[in-house]
Specification:
85% helix, 225 residues, mainly alpha
């Protein structure tokens, strides 16, 4: 009968080190997954509230009120994008000698802001990608070393047979199974979070374009260098 506890208790130091490493990798994956899950849910909820308020403020041409609302909604990626855009537009509009139109400077700044926000949205996902790709090989390393140890024990004792090596091989194979158990959820979590992140980044890009269109329609598109 398969007894995981007994197998783990008979593992050698190297196999235990591999198992502990895989456990730490699993904990890191869980931490990233739940942190991103919370961050995405918080951003979507805050962005929905801010979007409703921002639409009415834009229709009223109240950029000052929009900037105040954007600065207050720090949990929303959308609000952080518009906050930087409004600040740049106001600063450039106050500079009468600028050779570049305020809307063009705002567009450039919002592109930079979008890149920074995209990096923030994907923060920590490299951990999931690394765990998903590396964990099976870490487990395989433990298995190979375990099998080598089992055959070295046979050579030292001078006797062999299936019964002599089955215990050592089963202990080694458990490490490979553990690597797969860690890797598979990490890959699934990475794929799911990537879909969520892409949706948020797309919304950011759309909001950037709509805000620039609003500025150009209300304030005109001047010629720029």
């Amino acid at each position: 009968m398969f007894d995981l506890g007994k197998i783990i208790s008979h593992m050698g130091p190297f196999a235990l080190t591999i198992a502990i490493t895989l456990l730490l990798m699993a904990l890191a994956s869980l931490a990233v997954f739940f942190e991103r899950l919370y961050a995405y849910a918080r951003s979507r909820a805050a962005s929905k509230i801010f979007a409703r308020e921002a639409r009415s403020l834009l229709l009223a041409n109240d950029t000052e009120g929009l900037r105040t609302k954007a600065n207050a909604a720090k949990r929303s990626h959308l609000a952080r994008l518009l906050s930087g855009g409004i600040k740049t537009f106001e600063e450039q509009s106050a500079q009468k000698q600028s050779q570049i139109a305020p809307t063009e400077m705002t567009r450039r700044e919002m592109v930079r802001q979008s890149d920074a926000l995209a990096a923030d949205v994907r923060r920590g996902m490299g951990v999931l990608a690394s765990v998903g790709s590396v964990a099976p090989f870490v487990g395989l390393l433990g298995t190979v070393i375990g099998i080598i140890d089992a055959f070295q024990g046979i050579a030292k004792e001078g006797s062999g047979g299936l019964g002599a090596v089955s215990s050592g091989i089963s202990e080694a194979l458990v490490v490979t199974a553990l690597g797969l158990v860690v890797a598979i959820p990490a890959v699934l979590a990475y794929n799911w979070l990537s879909t969520q992140a892409d949706a948020i980044i797309l919304a950011i890009d759309q909001a950037r374009g709509e805000f620039i269109d609003f500025l150009e329609s209300r304030h005109g598109k001047q010629s720029h260098v």
